[in-house]
Amino acid sequence: MPKSRAYGGLDAFRILAALLVVAIHISPLTTYSAAGDFFLTRCLAQVAVPFFFMVTGHFVLGQVLEGKGTFAPLGRQVRKILLLYLVAVVLYLPIGWYAGHYQDLRLLDGVRLLVFDGTFYHLWYFPACAMGLLVVYGLSRVFRGRGLWVAVGVLYGIALLGDSYYGLTTQIAPLASLYEAGFHLFSYTRNGLFMAPLFLLLGAQMGKRGPAPLPWAAGLGLALSLALMTGEGFLLRHLGLQRHDSMYLLLPLVMCFLYRLLLAWPAKAPAACRTLSTWVYILHPAMLVVLRGGAKVVGLTEILVGNSLVQYLMVCLLSFLTAGVVTWVLGRLRPQVPQLGRAWVQLDRAALIHNVAALRALLPPGCQLMPAVKADAYGHGALPVARILQGEGVSAFCVACLSEGIQLRKGGIRGEILILGYTHPDQFPLLRRYRLSQTVVDAAYARQLAAYGRPLSVHLAVDTGMHRLGEASGHLEEIRQIFALPSLRIQGIYTHLCTADGTTSRDQAYVHRQAQAFRELLERLQNQGIALPKVHLLASHGLLNYPDLGGDYARVGIALYGLLSTREDRNLAAPDLRPVLSLRARVASVKTLSPGCAAGYGLAFVAQRPTKVAVLAIGYADGLPRTLTGGQVLLHGCRAPIVGRICMDQTLVDVTEIPAVDPGDVAVLLGTSGQETITAYDLAQQAGTITNEILSRLGPRLERIVR
Ligand SMILES: *Cc1c(COP(=O)(O)O)cnc(C)c1O
Q1: 496 touches ligand 1 (CB under 6 Å)
Q2: Which of 81, 344, 440, 599 lies 20 to 30 Å (CA to CA) from residue 656?
Q3: Of the listed 137, 208, 374, 510, which one is catalytic?
């Protein structure tokens, strides 16, 4: 599972799920109420194990089933699960032995225990998870799409008929004898063959769909389905149909609501929850043994074991303590892979949050930020940036293309995501799957969107004079027809200004012409009885210079990152914006050139004196413009000139004047070191471009670190 905060809800729930698993095995309420305990452990707590299956399905099966992945990641996960199982088997061998679980064990019993039941009662989960993954993978090779769902559904049906609904099975003699035969091989149908596949696949599916768009609705669905499932449980219990109680007909529905709700839950939970919950799961039966032994020794059996609730709480306490120790020890043992290896982009979280506040202060009334996080958030890293923004209450984003939108959704970003550019009709299904809004680039494209047939959420681009995307603002009839298309859900209408950064009177006049054309169109549409969706026209320079033009959204890009396009930009408003990004790279090697010695491609640099050269592990493939001749970097707070031609992966700098430069030292290519600063303006000026281009070209090969 990726190390990210976006799955905080899942991580937090792991702890709760571990507590529920302990409850299933200890029945904490038996001392007080049999029905209460049935509700807690046989209904409510039955979400715990399917939840763990779903998380595995989400993070392991997801990619594999999309057809992109090969078997390899799945194979790795299966190996990991089996290794953990092996450790647990060995751990419980003495206890199982003492309890007489392995007496008179025949070969078939051994297979049953190892492959299906688990060698100790709770350990069935591990072989089930591994086998379930393999079963789903195998089925996915044979069945596609709906067929795969039918296949795992049938398996789940088989599982139900051997579990909560076994009473029905026994009514049909041939079926009953089939199950009887099966039960020689496995004691329960809650195993990797029948139960796990459905939940693994559900996890993969729910993960793909992302967080619930309306958390309250998912919460309501969860409450209702859980209530119904509880009814189902009590009914089956009343009718005496249950052979076992791991599965209900309604359990998959409950799990769908629960999982999407958890994806939407913005909990902050440390990644250590994952290891912790696993070890609570593994260790709690041992802690029960420890508790019973300990209670006997100190003569407190009646209180500590006699009361089911006290016993439960004690086992939880002991389990979390020991699991905590194991987690800590494992954390120490695991080699910490150091980040900041070669070259990286470092984000200043505080600066970004500051800029959000500074720009919000400029927003016209009723207007919200709709940050542009296209081009990997102008090279900053789309996900880290969008997550910080989401944490600041931003609920609408714009991106340039489909893949950028999908990346955000998969990373747990909620709210509106508008694609500003073109999406090919073959890819329209993905717009729906990831709940993305598409820009209508002109009237012909609107008809293509409508021809898709199923509802699509869109914003209508209007061309008011930039002559890039958008239906011409003068084409009232065409635009009216777009509004009449039945399957388009038009959420917004917008235009883009092309001279908002200019200071000449010609530039200003053009902005007003564009704004006027837009306003007239909106009025005409309203006069035709069309209710206007969200309206927007301001980007960074628009907001800084023409806030009075208003709108429901401001699509702010470059300013959010603390910059204007060029140093010379003059704006009406000059908020205190702070650059968010710095770019750093390690020194790979240091060497000395004697006078006359040349270096780099084309021998473009010739040493005029004994010259110490540091080789930086960053090049134009990382987005450093090759035209940065005459540029500088910072090392130990000093400026070092870039020499020779920038290579794809390396850059040479002259460090003759800088004492003690060693391999591994960090050079700053953009940002501050000591008293010195290199800005994106400097790079843009040297490279003959604007900051937007410098930043957006910083490549995916760079690590992204938030500080
Ligand atoms: C890129 C883009 C923006 C953001 O522009 P900035 O100048 O970086 O604020 C806004 N709207 C559209 C249509 C864009 O393409």
Answers
A1: yes
A2: 344
A3: 374
Q: Which atom of ligand 1 is nearest to the CA of 565?
A: 7
Question: What radius of gyration, in Å, describes the C-alpha atoms of the chain?
Answer: 31
Structure tokens at 495: 């235009």
Nearest ligand 1 atom, CA 400? 15
**For residues 689 and 126, what is the distance between their CA atoms, to the nearest angstrom?**
57
Q: Are 404 and 696 in contact (CB under 8 A)?
A: no
Half-sphere exposure of 7 (CA within 13 A, CB side): 20
**Joined tokens for residue 401:** 């293309």
Which amino acid makes up residue 462?
A: V
- What residues form DSSP beta bridges with 682? none
What count of other Cβ atoms lies within 10 Å of the Cβ of residue 59? 18
State the distance from the centre of ligand 1 to the C-alpha of 411, rounded, in angstroms. 22
Atom of ligand 1 nearest to the CA of 556: 9
Model pLDDT for residues 98-156, shown as the tens digit of each residue: 888 778 788 888 888 889 988 888 899 999 999 999 999 999 989 988 999 999 999 99
> How far, in Å, is the centroid of ligand 1 from the Cα of 567?
18
Whether 536 lines ligand 1, by a CB cut-off of 6 Å, is no
Q: Is 392 exposed, middle or buried (0-12, 13-18, 19+ CB in 10 A)?
A: middle
The token pair at 166 is 């076994």
pTM: 0.67
374 is catalytic: yes
Separation in Å, CA 16 to CA 6, 12, 208, 271: 18, 7, 23, 15
The answer to whether the CB of 539 is under 6 A from ligand 1 is yes
Instruction: Tell me which residue has its CA closest to atom 4 in ligand 1.
Output: 557
Whole-number Å distance between alpha carbons of 334 and 326? 12
> Who's near 536: CB < 8 A, 6+ residues apart?
370, 492, 494, 551, 552, 553, 554, 555
- Compute the distance from residue 531 Cα to the ligand 1 centre, in Å: 26
Residue carrying structure tokens 């079963």: 135
Looking from the CA of residue 421, the nearest atom of ligand 1 is 15
Lookup result for tokens 């542009």? 372
For range 256-260, the mean pLDDT? 95
CB 372 less than 6 A from any atom of ligand 1: yes
Q: Which of 462, 555, 577 to mutate to test the pocket of ligand 1 (most atoms within 8 A of CB)?
A: 555
| Angstrom distance (rounded) from CA 616 to CA 401 | 33
Tell me which residue of 456, 694, 441, 659 sits closest to 566, measured CA to CA. Answer: 694
The pLDDT tens digits for 287-333 are 999 999 999 999 988 888 889 999 999 999 999 999 999 999 988 88
- Respond yes or no: is residue 612 known to be catalytic: no
Could you identify the atom of ligand 1 that is nearest to the CA of residue 496? 13
For residues 73 and 79, what is the distance between their CA atoms, to the nearest angstrom? Answer: 10
pLDDT tens digits for 200-214? Answer: 999 999 988 878 888
The stretch 456-484 carries a mean pLDDT of: 96
SS3 for 380-449 is: CCHHHHHHHHHHCCCCEEEECCHHHHHHHHHCCCCCEEEECCCCCHHHHHHHHHCCCEEEECCHHHHHHH
Residue 545 in contact with ligand 1 by CB distance below 6 A? no
Read off the pLDDT of residues 603-637 as tens digits, 9 standing for 90 and up: 999 999 999 999 999 999 999 999 988 899 999 99
Token pair listed for 632: 């500088």
Amino acid (1-letter code) at residue 376:
D
The SS3 call for residue 639 is strand
* 349-381 pLDDT per residue, tens: 999 999 999 999 999 999 999 999 999 999 999
> Does 557 contact ligand 1 (Cβ within 6 A)?
yes
Question: Does 44 contact ligand 1 (Cβ within 6 A)?
Answer: no
β-pair partners for 606: 598
**Cβ-based neighbours of 252, under 8 Å, separated by 6 or more:** 50, 156, 198, 199, 202
Ligand 1 centroid to Cα of residue 471, in Å, is 18
Q: What is the pLDDT of residue 338?
A: 61
Q: Is 8 in the pocket of ligand 1 (CB under 6 A)?
A: no
Mean pLDDT of the chain: 92
